């Protein structure tokens, strides 16, 4: 049986980004680094994109080549030692697909999340019964144990909203997701009431795109923009679809999805009007 790869942590991603910037600052190409240190250019690419964690001696060789000051070396070595930590991911999450555990790790390190959802209530705002109904419906071949593991994981993630330094969450939901009776009328009404309560929390913003808005840029699919407080961490885009999950972090992609989200903010109802619409749907 193949060994499951570890999901990249936010610390590993940060280390990778700083090593990439250090090399860029020297003007060296990856091939130049290979020639001077023996570190394979492909291996260096994987290190700089957080696809693999470097060996300690590899890190030391790179820092020496880039003539990094001793105090900066100590900081990066400390970051390296912490880079394998997966945050709050628990042992029972081993069965989760690699992309999802990666998402969990990045989300746990984020300062803010901007989430557009066209088909579901976003996971961070789902009730347990709604989450269970969604997971059973989407993963129709999953066992009861697998469903419950995923429900537990989804509910655990919501602790990010009640931490001492809570995640700033801004969600835009298509009206279709609010009218689809996932789990039946009672489950859906409870879910909608939960959204109304969540909207009262200062660090949570909820907007709804009504049917009356017609076609809009979010219709091709859901996406999430994760913002990080450390200026060395670029925003990260997460896109989920039938073909699987992907992460995007190029400047072009970040600019595109930021603009898409801003456009959806303009198309959607105001937060107050959105709550009024959710309340109306719940009463229907």
Automatic annotation (TrEMBL):
Gene Ontology MF term list: DNA binding
UniProt cross-references to SMART domains, sorted A to Z: HTH_XRE
Coiled coil: none
Ranges where the HTH cro/C1-type domain occurs: 19-73
Protein name listed in UniProt: Transcriptional regulator with XRE-family HTH domain
